[in-house]
Specification:
Blueprint: H1 3-8, E1 14-20, H2 26-33, E2 37-44, H3 47-56, H4 58-62, E3 66-70, E4 83-87, H5 91-99, E5 106-110, H6 115-124, E6 128-137, E7 139-147, H7 157-162, H8 172-189, H9 193-210
Parallel strand pairs: 1-2, 1-4, 2-3, 4-5
Antiparallel strand pairs: 5-7, 6-7
Bound molecules: S-adenosylmethionine.
């Protein structure tokens, strides 16, 4: 399975999906084609990116099932949209988007980096993370699915770092082994100060997650 298909498996069946940072529009196309959503709002800060999605989704736009908005983050999205997907951006960028607008009722985020920062941000604001997993398509990606409010058991430091469901996912071991090797190599080639302490902390967490 490719990343788009794996990622879309985390979406709930809904009436309207907002795909923020849609770029080419492949996620929305997949969700509409498979009946995951009936309608969609595609949004991107770049008019050039948005035009790729508009081209791909032209039949759906003509049918009135897709609306496109060129905007920064959630600025042009109704807060009552059923579900929001933000994939392929950094965790800090996703936090910036949420902070300057709203936390959606239901969301699926796939941060390219800084997933722990995003998890912490969501938990501190009372969100319920309902799936916190890892997917693989040549590279590894974290997927965080959640709801604006709700209860869940407290996260440990290792869960904050890697996600709760990731740790039980069979692909996690190969992710962690790859990361461990990379970070141990960086550590051998460096290091002093904050960068070194951060690497050592990450190595310790990876070992803990692997049960090593
Ligand atoms: C790497 S692409 C990801 C495309 C798609 N979501 C996916 O996962 O395949 C990132 C897209 O996010 C858009 N983007 C970056 N920052 C944004 C923001 N603040 N608001 C809306 N779109 C943004 C970029 O223009 C780009 O099209």
């Amino acid at each position: 399975m490719g990343r788009i298909e794996e990622l879309c498996a985390y979406l709930d069946k809904c009436r309207t999906l907002a795909d923020v940072g849609c770029d080419h529009g492949y996620c929305t196309e997949f969700a509409l084609d498979r009946g995951i959503c009936e309608r969609a709002v595609i949004a991107d800060i770049s008019a050039k990116s948005l035009s790729k999605a508009q081209k791909l989704l032209a039949p759906y736009i003509e049918e009135g099932r897709v609306k496109s908005v060129c905007c920064d983050g959630l600025e042009g999205i109704d807060a009552d949209v059923d579900e929001v997907l933000i994939a392929g951006m950094g965790g800090e960028e996703i936090i910036k988007i949420l902070s300057s607008a709203f936390i959606p009722e239901k969301f699926v985020f796939q941060p390219m980096k800084n997933a722990p920062l995003l998890r912490r941000y969501l938990i501190e604001r009372g969100c319920a993370i309902v799936r916190d997993d890892i997917i693989e398509d040549g590279k590894y990606y974290f997927v965080i699915k959640g709801e604006r409010t709700g209860k869940m058991a407290e996260y440990s430091e290792v869960e904050l770092e890697f996600g709760r469901d990731s740790l039980k996912n069979p692909i996690f071991a190969s992710y962690a082994a790859t990361e461990l090797e990379k970070k141990q190599t960086y550590l051998g080639g460096c290091c002093e100060g904050a960068e070194c302490s951060s690497l050592k902390r990450q190595i310790a967490l990876l070992k803990e997650a692997l049960g090593a």
